[in-house]
Design goal:
By secondary structure, the protein is an all-alpha fold. It has one domain.
Length: about 120
């Protein structure tokens, strides 16, 4: 069960960053899609749900674990930058920087998840 949930979480993370990337490109092209926003929200909700389920079902993980805490903070930073960057009405240069910072936060969180980097906390 945990293995299947882990794989689901991994696939949802890839879907999430793909949708985020597409939305960013669409933002740069001055095009907004309500369906992409809905897909992003649903994907992120399920991604958080599977992440929390993995924390609670795994015997080795807890909220006190720096690895888990760093992933949670990184994901929240990714979402924070995405919400601000993709909001209509923001100037393109500022939105572009925030969008890239969101991608960097996702890359950092993914590197922590894969064990490529060590948590900074």
């Amino acid at each position: 069960m945990t293995y299947m949930m882990h794989n689901t979480h991994f696939v949802l993370a890839l879907v999430s960053v793909t949708v985020y990337f597409i939305r960013g490109v669409m933002m740069l092209a001055s095009h907004n899609s309500r369906s992409m926003t809905t897909i992003a929200a649903i994907t992120m909700l399920i991604l958080f749900g599977t992440g929390l389920a993995l924390v609670f079902t795994s015997n080795t993980m807890s909220f006190a674990n720096t690895w888990v805490l760093t992933k949670m903070i990184g994901t929240l930073v990714y979402v924070f930058f995405g919400v601000i960057a993709l909001k209509p009405g923001l100037s393109k240069p500022i939105a572009s920087v925030l969008w890239l910072l969101g991608l960097a936060a996702f890359a950092y969180t993914g590197a922590i998840a894969k064990g490529i980097l060590s948590p900074l906390i």
